[in-house]
Write a structure and sequence with these properties.
The chain has helices at about 20-25, 105-115, 130-140, 160-165, 170-175, 185, 190-195, 220-225, 235-245, 265-270, 290-305, 320-325, 340-345, 385-400, 405-415, 460-475, 490-510, 520-545, and strands at about 90-95, 120-125, 150, 205-210, 215-220, 275-280, 285, 335, 355, 370, 375-380, 420, 430, 475-480. It is of the alpha/beta class and about 550 residues long.
């Protein structure tokens, strides 16, 4: 697993509409049709798993990840030669780290350039500035686009598919079906990631950043919850009782951050409510928010808040500050992406024991978990001649090297003896230089990356615990049925309509809005575009099945 930045931001980020972006990217009635309905669908790339070190804990077909309790002793080589031609490649991606040292003074940057055989001009965008920067990029001329662009999945960019279809290279001829065999590391990206990325107008325009099945997760302070009576097989009543006992003085069982809806994803999934969109047996799409189980989850959270189990500043704390409160024991839990396990274990050592909570049951039904979109985002390429596209794809193929390869180690840790040393189990251990020169601050992992695995350096028991947890919960994962599908209305209005829902959920749980307002909010959402979205998703789903 790579050295990740605090992906703690992911579970709680709320998309904010940018009026200028909607205007700049719209071409009025002339907008192209990005729907897959009525189109000839390009075959997904042919999946061919890479060969490499055998995992200690086996993956499963339904989504449990491979686990490594120690770092592979013999690294494989996944790329036979440097992919570049000495030219300069302009790239752009989101970042959750601090700005890196300039290329001229950055040995990590230089090492990657040397192996790739190109010079990299990197435009790095902080998560906070991503939407604003993308508005400028999407409104600019094609000539000014970077060669490689990371389209981050944390926000809905208005008319994003239309922008991609008009301005990015159609990668279908290069990647569809067996064509991807020219790029073996990209062929190692599982089909589920391509499917959740989706097609645009029936064509393949991007390369997905694969992610594990578990999504938003309740991370708990294991000892605090165990001391308060937590036990496997707990019910919603048990959860409320444990939260009450774990809350005392200035210690709160439940933490939440701005935009997280008091951790609503975790609780709605435990209530087995659909996660945003569900599809019926006849292929009709229904909003999860109209499900009574979703409304019940809101009511349950409101009671938890009323009983004092939530930190009183749950609507104003940033996710980063909430993480600090979690580590120092002020809050006993927080909603976060499952992929945040690495910093959770690494940064909490000696302070507390983190754990992914098993969902509680409701009404005798085992609780569900949130199934993540299996694509964290995707990478598109600026339109160019065939030879240039092939060069860029070779670069991305290198960056997508699998865990257990020499290329993966370089891209994620740098140079041995300079950026890292070896721990007792052979795991890379960052040096002081490696703490500032790494792929958190130079976020190459958001351009391309191989399938993620379970690995915590020097902590084999943590890997076993996470693997066991996944075996228990993956069968109960609840997937948003709209992943990978197109809706013209969502592309244009989804952010604004989602804000209507989110504001009401937060208001109800916080006690500012009565639960009786929920039905009125849902009607507004339907009337303003929700029902149109359902119709469009229904048509696109039919085209993809």
């Amino acid at each position: 697993m790579p050295r990740m930045s605090r992906r703690t931001l992911l579970g709680s980020m709320a998309a904010v509409s940018i009026p200028g972006l909607l205007t700049a990217c719209s071409t009025g009635s002339g907008d192209s049709d990005v729907s897959n309905a009525g189109k000839k669908l390009a075959p997904w790339p042919t999946y061919k798993p890479a060969t490499g070190p055998k995992p200690d804990l086996a993956p499963t077909a339904d989504g449990v990840q491979a686990g490594y309790t120690s770092y592979p002793a013999d690294l494989v080589k996944s790329v036979s030669r440097a992919p570049g031609d000495g030219s300069t490649v302009k790239v752009m991606s989101v970042s959750f780290g601090t700005p890196p040292k300039p290329a001229s003074a950055n040995r990590f940057w230089a090492a990657v350039e040397n192996e790739l055989g190109v010079k990299i001009e990197y435009t790095i965008i902080s998560q906070a500035d991503y939407q604003k920067k993308m508005a400028t990029v999407m409104a600019g001329d094609t000539d000014t686009l970077p060669d490689i662009i990371n389209v981050f999945a944390g926000f809905v960019l208005p008319r994003e598919p239309e922008f991609v279809q008009r301005r990015a290279e159609d990668l279908t001829p290069f990647l569809s079906g067996d064509a991807i065999a020219d790029y073996p590391n990209l062929a190692n990206i599982p089909t589920h990631a391509w499917q959740d990325m989706g097609r645009i107008g029936g064509r393949i325009y991007g390369i997905p950043l694969e992610r594990p099945l578990p999504g938003s997760t309740l991370w708990i302070n294991q000892d605090m919850f165990a001391d308060a009576g937590m036990a496997e097989g707990w019910t919603s009543d048990d959860f409320a009782a444990v939260a009450g006992r774990a809350t005392s003085g200035r210690t709160y069982a439940l933490g939440a951050a701005t935009g997280s809806l008091f951790g609503n994803a975790v609780h709605s999934a435990a209530h087995n409510a659909p996660q945003e969109w569900a599809v019926t047996k006849d292929g009709t799409f229904q909003p999860g928010w109209a499900d009574e189980r979703y409304k019940a989850a809101i009511a349950f959270q409101a009671e938890l808040r009323k009983n004092g189990s939530y930190h009183p500043d749950a609507t104003s704390i940033s996710q980063i500050d909430l993480t600090t409160l979690y580590y120092n024991g002020t809050v006993g839990s927080m909603q976060d992406g499952f992929g945040a396990y690495l910093p959770k274990y690494r940064e909490s050592q000696g302070k507390m024991t983190p754990a992914a909570a098993l969902p509680y049951s409701v009404g005798g039904e085992p609780g569900g978990i949130v199934a993540a979109r299996r694509s964290f985002g995707y990478t598109v390429l600026k339109k160019a001649k065939k030879e240039r596209i092939e060069l860029l794809l070779r670069i991305l193929d290198y960056l997508a090297a699998p865990f257990g390869s020499k290329e993966w180690e370089l891209v994620h840790y740098g140079i041995e003896g300079t950026h890292f040393t070896r721990g007792k189990d052979g795991s890379p251990t960052p040096t002081k230089l490696g703490e500032v020169e790494n792929n958190t601050n130079l976020p190459l992992k958001y351009l391309a990356e191989g399938p993620q695995v379970l690995f915590v350096p020097g902590m084999p028991e943590a890997v076993r615990a996470l693997h066991t947890w996944q075996q228990k919960v993956v069968p109960h994962a609840i997937r948003n049925a709209s992943f990978g599908l197109q809706s013209r209305t969502k592309n244009a209005q989804g952010t604004t309509l989602k804000a209507l829902i989110d504001d009401t959920v937060t208001g109800i749980v916080a006690g500012r809005v009565p639960l009786s307002e929920w039905d009125a909010t849902l009607k507004k959402w339907r009337d303003r575009g929700g029902d149109r979205m359902a119709e469009e998703f229904t048509k696109d789903y039919a085209a993809n099945t």
